[in-house]
Amino acid sequence: MLENIVSALDLLFQPARLLALFIGMLAGMVFGMLPGLGGVAAVSILLPFIYLMDGYSGLAMLLGAISVIYTADTITSVLIGAPGSPASAPTAIEGHALAKQGKASLALGVGFLASMVGGLFGALILSVAIPIAGPLVLALGTPELFMFALVGLCFAASMVGKDLAVGLAAACLGILLGVIGAAPAAANYRFIFGQSYLMDGLSLPIVALGLFAVAELISMVASGGGIAGQPMTLGKWGESFRVFWRNRWLICRSSIIGIFGGFVPAVGASASTWIAYGHAMSSTKDKRNFGKGEIRGIASAEGANNATIISDLVPTMLFSVPGGPAAAIFLGALFSFGFYPGPRMVSESPDLMYMIVWSVALASVMGAAICFAVTPYIARLTRVNFALIAAPLLLIMVAGAYQGTQTFGDILALLALGILGWLMKNAGIPRAPVLVGFVLATPMEQYFWLTTQIHGFTWLTRPGVLIIASLIVIPLVLNAGRWLRQRRKLANDATQRQAEASPASAEPPSHDSSIILIAALVMVVAFGYALVEMLGFRPNARLMPSLGIVPGLLLSLYVLGRQLIRIRRQGHMANLASRQELPVLGGILSYGLVMWLIGFNLATPLLLAWLLVGCARMRWGTALLYGLAVYGVAQGMFAMMRLTPPAGALLDLPMPW
Questions:
Q1: With the CA atoms of 417, 422, 428 and 431 taken in that order, what torsion angle do they form, in degrees rounded to the nearest 10?
Q2: Whose CB among 167, 265, 276, 490 lies 3.0–4.6 Å from 155's, allowing a Cys bridge?
Q3: 87 burial level (CB within 10 Å; 0-12, 13-18, 19+)
């Protein structure tokens, strides 16, 4: 084992790989500081570029981003009270209150140091888990690996919200997206609509960018104005180190809570952070400061969320069960580079696994140091209009999507998935299960086909399969029992029955009822068409699609019917924020249409004029200078990737080079 640890260190300490790790860290910090974007957007943006490198460098870049997300989002959580991700909500509550008291440096310093400790704890657990879990993983066969993937899919359904039906329907939609293209076990092309572009299926970067990054960009641009109302001032860092040392054992305990949250995919960073925050509250004698600026709340939350996102990689690498959407993207990148989580990785690539440990540890320390260095400058930039950031961000997404096949189908798929992601976001349908279902569709199909070919249906009686299946069945039984008890209690209480039927218990007003209805209808139509199309496939090509289509259609019909009943009883609920995003959505779709007609080189100046002058309200002279800089960077990015920007169907402006 020591030999592998030293060899992994040598692998990482190559100049190109260290540079990739550093670039990933910078991207993770930038996206961590942008409220609403976070880790999924960061790794989504980086994903297209990692394929320009060797496998070790590409994975190091992703790990750099993943390791510093929850360190960097401490900055905006404290300075402006807007958490970069749901897991940073306790930090925003306590940290922003401290910032208003003139103690921003205390909150930030303790947050950075606690995040660093959480990351190091996660790296330590990774290094310990490899030799301990290795023999267990090597004993698993294809039936057990298939069941672990199925467990991950079911856990993904509960990643966001408590509506299991909606979560499972989203996971089934991910499977449907994942089976597009050639069937691995039969001579069939599935759901390609006669388009050669879809023969190889959808690419992971396009799915991740469309579902998450495009949808979040639309909402941020539509919100208008700066990220914060006014910049915060900082103090000195000295006190933060003393307070950190005083609370070191709380941070260690919170990191352990976060590690357990990472081991169980259904928990995740958001839940483990609140559990750690609750532990801090219960272990504090004087609880009056919680919610008003309690530093122990920040220490516990930041220690837990960083440990969770790192320990998410343990089930991801050993069992192909991603603990969250960022881990799901990392899992897809492993497959793309030819590294297969599970028995093959433990036995054939131990150097890679320990390189991941070193990358996480190094990024955690360096990320905290960089955050200390850049925070004074970031504090001055909190009034920057997001539309200024959206301009280069959207062009990066277009370049990242286009490098897949270098056809306009990449751009069309990005926009179509962007619409789907926007609908799901504004309908309250979790998108993380879609991404997990998409990533797991291919390995699940391989495991399922091999399992049925080798074992027939006797695999269902294997002890390992039954034990793993209990991870799905037991929570379902417990939830069903809890639901029945609640229904029985409500049946005996007329007042509570009335409360259940009142608008207070209806669909939360944060989601527009019309958008929920449209999203449910889109899912019903998609699953219904897929079912009809699937009946024409060969038997082996129907195995995996049926696993997603049949339950997906039933669940979508249930969600649609439930929403129709709610509208009939309670009427339509409008959400102005969602409807204010429609012009931005229309603008981005118009950019795609104009790009198809006249090409990237002519359409992009029109996009920049709309974003900079129309959305950011810049003066024409300033907008021209900034737009030229962004345009030049975009052209340089295409040149660096050795790509020719998308040409127009009617007109195109060739570049001199």
A1: 30
A2: 265
A3: buried
Residues 6+ apart with CB under 8 A from 199: 181, 182, 189, 192
User: How far is the CA of 191 from the CAs of 441, 442, 521, in angstroms?
Assistant: 15, 15, 19
Confidence of residue 139 (pLDDT cuts 50, 70, 90): low
Residue type, 66: I
Q: Tokens 């959580």 appear where?
A: 77
CA 445 to chain centre: 23
35 part of a folded domain? yes
Interatomic CA distance for residues 352 and 125, integer angstroms: 16
Cα–Cα dist 87/559, whole Å: 28
Taken in order 422, 423, 427, 433, the sign of the CA dihedral is: negative
Nearest by Cα to 395 from 612, 656, 222 = 612
For residue 136, the model assigns a pLDDT of 61
Locate tokens 């960061």: which residue?
A: 42
Angle between the N-to-C axes of helices 539-570 and 432-455, in degrees from 0 to 180, rounded to the nearest 10: 140
Tell me, yes or no, whether 463 lies in a domain.
Answer: no
Return d(Cα 185, Cα 165) in angstroms, integer. 30
The structure tokens 């299946």 sit at 469
Place of tokens 């169907």: 649
Q: Is residue 615 part of a domain?
A: no
- Which residues sit opposite 226 in a β-bridge? 385
| φ and ψ of 418, to 5 deg | -65, -40
Contacts of 603 (CB under 8 A, 6+ apart): 591, 594, 595, 597, 648
> Which alpha helices (H) appear in 247-294, and where do they start and end?
248-263, 268-282
268-145-147 Cα angle (round to 5) = 70
Q: Read off the pLDDT of each residue in 556-572 and give the average, rounded to a whole number.
A: 87
Give the tens place of pLDDT for each residue, 97-110: 787 777 778 888 88
Distances in whole angstroms, Cα of residue 259 to Cα of each of 116, 254, 375, 404: 14, 9, 27, 35
| pLDDT tens readout for residues 336-379 | 888 777 666 766 777 787 888 888 888 888 888 888 887 776 66
Question: Residue 308 belongs to what domain range?
Answer: 2-384+431-436
Residue type, 388: L
Q: Nearest CA to 384 among 557, 592, 615, 196?
A: 615
Average pLDDT over residues 467-484: 77
pLDDT, tens digit, 9 for 90 and up, residues 177-213: 988 988 877 778 888 888 888 888 888 778 877 887 7
Which pair of tokens denotes residue 602? Answer: 């002519």
- Looking at residue 620, its amino acid is W
Residue 609 lies in a domain: no
